[in-house]
Amino acid sequence: MDTSFDNQQATQELTPSAKLALMHAQAAQDQDSKIESVTTLSSSALSGDLSVGEASEAQEAEEEKEEEVAEPVREPAPKKKAGLDLNSESAFPSLSSSSRPAAVSGWGAGSAARLKQASPTPSGSPHTPATKKVRNVVTDTLELAREDQIANQPNKPLGFKSAAESIKQVMSKTSTTINASTSRAGTITYLIQGKEADVAKAKREILANLAVKLNVQLEVPSSTQRFIIGAKGATLKQIQNISGTRINVPKREKADSEPVDNDDEEAEDVPVSISIVGDAEGVKIAKAEIMKIVGEKTATQTVKLNNIDSHYYPLIAGADNKKVKALADELDVKIRIPTFSVIALVEADNDNEEQATNKAETSIVISGDREKVQQAKQTIEKTYADLERVCGTVKFEVNKRQHRFIIGKNAVNLMDILEQTGCTVELPSSTDASEEVIIRGPKNKLPSAMALAFEKANSVQVQVLDLTRVNKSAADQQKHGQNLLRYLTYGSKLKQLEAEHGVQIMTPRGSIAEQKPVLEFVGKEESAVEQSVQAVDELARSLQVNYFGYADIEPHFHRHIIGRKGQNIQRLSEAHAVSIITPDEKEESSEILLVFEGKASELEGLDQKAKDAKIKEALDAASAELTKMAADISDFTSKTIKVPAKFHGAIIGPKRTTLNAIIGNGADNQVFVKFGSAAPSGDKPRNADLAEDAIVIRGPTEEVNRVVQEINRVHEEAKHEDFLNSYVTECVIPAEYSAHVIGKAGANINKLKDDLGVKIDIEDGKAKSEGTPAKATPKTDKVKVTIKGIKTNVEAAKDRIMALIESLADRTVTSLSIPRQYHKSLIGTSGRYVKKLEDKYSVRIQFPRSDASADASDDNSSEVSSVAEKSSTDEITLSGGKKGVAAAKAELLELYEYEVENNNVVTFTFDAKHLPHIVGRNGAKVKEIKDETQARIDFNKPVDGVVTTSLQGTKQSIANAKKAILEAIEELDSQVTETIKVNAEHHKRLIGAGGRNIRNIVVEAGGSEDRAASMVRFPRSDDSVQDEIVLKGDKEIVAKIRAKLEQLVADEEALVTVNVDIPRDEHANLIGRGGSNLKALQKKYNVRIDFPKAGNASSKEPVTIAGLPEDCEKCKADMLSKVRATHEMLIPRKHHVAVSGSNGATYRKLRNEFNIVVDHKGETEPKANKKTGALNGSAARIDTTEGSDDFNLEIIENEGSSEEGDITWVLKGDQKNIERAQKYIKSLLKDAHNQTHTGYLTVPQSMHRYIVGRQGSTISRIRGESDTNILVPNKDGDVVVITGTRAGIAMARDLILEVVDKPKNRD
Fold it and tell me: Are the C-beta atoms of residues 115 and 135 closer than 8 Å to each other?
């Protein structure tokens, strides 16, 4: 490419003064000895050595030489578009005119720099006309008009430096060479030479220092504000860095999380004015970048739909949001439909009800291309309108405890119902006592959705155990129940029971646990649920009230009592056989629960009193020791200081960083601080027990005093405005420790930044993060660490870094050679043993690289890694404090010696094809062998079809393991695979309900029930061959299964169908409730029974029985024997009411006691005549007798039905029972003839017991003698009712009065 032509073109586009300056630069680069006219900015010029007159003379000399330079520059151009006219007065004005005032230098009055003045340029923004590259050096020009120069402004900013000083600083800072020339119009042209990046930086520096700053207002839509700012202001910072301007964006009136208003349509874009301050060129760049963002973001739209009932959200979205996802994919938009109803409440269980409610109230939001968004909006609104037209609701009640089974885990059952029926299920919240369930969806789908909801609700068995009722003798059953709940939920007791019985045990949460401690047991098998309830109940009953004790200790002592990793509590529990359960820190409770857990053998042979004494002794001893431990921490104190609540946030700091810096963070923190104001972090609501300005500090006295002093200091600093400004400090650390300070991938330094909210910079070049390969660092090298942030936090960060350096100085690395075969034993399962050593001695232990999977830690330091790489595969590397490394090394050697003495290793090989069978599914088979033999078994990768197995353990355990493996191989060799052809129509019967039949066949043949599916494989629906059954397993077992299947198929083909005529009204009796009787018959005779469908067949359609001939006949005979006999009785209609009894009492007695059902062949039952008067009314009363003031008898004639004729009573049941029922009904009919009147005898309640007599003897005698029926009220009332003839009632009255008038009864 001809660069000379490009340069020529670029040159001709320049202004005259720029062209002249460029000619000077080209002449200087070509080192033309004849041209020496360009004056560089020398140190003498910058220092102001020339006078104003000398500068003027130099300027004239330069102008004369410029004319000589111009011609050679134009000669190389092959083609001239617009030549440079050196005679042009406009380009090169004459200097001879004395009437024109001299131009004022742009460098200021105080500097007499030897700067060449160029031709005048039109006023305006700084101009950068061309750039010329010579090798790696770039030449560029920059023009600054007179009116754009700060030096020419009447009011200069504070601290403004002269042009000479600024240019000198720019050249030093950017490593460039800058030449300048000034035209008569005052325009300065800067010629800048250097590397491309340095030249660009120099131009920005010149404009920033010397150009007048503009303040431009730019209006943008408010919706684009957050995009201009970017995440954490990143985009805005980038624009400012590129343009060198300062951009002020007004504060948004609402949070970024609110992309749209509450309107149905897109939120109105209010114009927002953005201020851009900078030079003209920078402002132009900033405006272009901002408008680019605005252009991109205004092409999209976001709308809200709040006119849609949220109950229809799931129907619009579809199961698992399939419908809305399809719509979003089709139109390439984003659609957010919030969760509703139960799904929202499920989320509320993990968060809080208020948040869930807010989610449920959120509208549908659509965002994307404007046109596509409108299409999506119209589609959703049309779908909603269609749903409103076709949908309905049905309400029903389901036990509250079963609601969560309708929901399912992660609402999977709700999605299943929605998928299958297109209906949604709405349930009340868990805190609402309502049991109502609402199904919403297409009206024709509501019944199936309702049935499916009931199926989900009843899919599991649920039982409840109320712990308050376990021990009814407890004085405070509520408290005892709470204690039981705390004990059962402590540790893994309930989890063990869950695993044993295959159930889930639900515990109450939060305040519910304090109100009513109950446990819910959930499982698929009722027997498993009952067994788990029984197991927990037995455990709870074994813990009597005296098994529980308490220790009252202030909450701030609990952490110290527990000890590191619970060591103190574990020691106390083992010493006294007592479980020690501390409350959660959030509860701030001082009550520590103690539960006696002594072995039953320790209490054997003791009477109850001695047992109680022993339990009390253990609990008192544990409580006393806990109290003593708390008392020993006598150094603890509590102080309350007053600090205005408005400063609490500054003391706590962002994300508690300042407070962490004050009190320390982690397990070593011994101080508790509580604020009276609401916590700024939102951790807890305001503490009503404390004054708003109060701060409570508890802990060791020395630490409390220090924390109080620090809080007061931060308070004083927070009063000053500069508190929030950054505080910077520096420290120097050895370079060899920088990797440890940084951590792997910056983990350590990032944690320190997050904990304390500071910025930390470590000197580049010498510091490397852990895991980064680096050359060995000389120990004499130092690294500077700079920390910036709030002063308190900065000082805390510095202290932590220096403390880490001190611990690293004590660090040592050593290695230990132990044969590789013992490494896994030393590491332990999942690194358990080696991690325990690391925690115990605060060291890091690294095994050879090939054992990396079992290393105790993946985060190995570069120092340890370098040692490990050099070591052999037998060497173990230990690093840490010198004492800890020595102790860990000694213990590893002890473990190694133990392994050598007790562990033997044997290897053998077998065919690789047997490996899956030996390992088993998910390793179950090999795990079983390991558990039985207590041997360690390792399989190497197969090589050439052979697997090498390593057995480790005692000689006996190795022998047993090898024998078990070889037996498994032998068993596998005896396996066969056979195929049997069976017509597909027989498969269902062979499999049975839930696979029951085939499992029984496999078990009978000697196989395992769990392996039935793998031993007998029926063809799937997509298999090409549908009549082949594959049998796989042991030869003998497969032969037995084959024989059994062939027999069953033969029996199946010999099946017959038998018809039996059974009256239609007997069908329900034979089917039974829920089909129980029908299922029993089918199971008993191994047949299939089909009843005609109700409403579809005539009453004469027979019942069919399908099965083997002999089975069908037996079943038929049994069914006919169950058909009930019938007998008809005629009862006078006027006595029907009396015989049937009050509210059908006679019907119920016949059904319950005689197993007889009564109907009336469709005849209408007569009703009793209405009474015409009250009890004391004269219309119904026949006679009134008053024997004394205490007794009164009223006799009323009974009024039965006035209907004439008879009503038919049809009795259905067993013949013998029918005969018994006939006698009973006849006795009732006789009584109805005799009981013509009813007497109401008033007898004081206190006398009733004499009328009844011992075990009812007296009243039975009176009934027999008077031939009446006597009813004495149980509790309330004084009236005794007597039914019979009028004479019989009178006799009964006399006999009753005779009883109550006896002297011994009257006293």
Answer: no
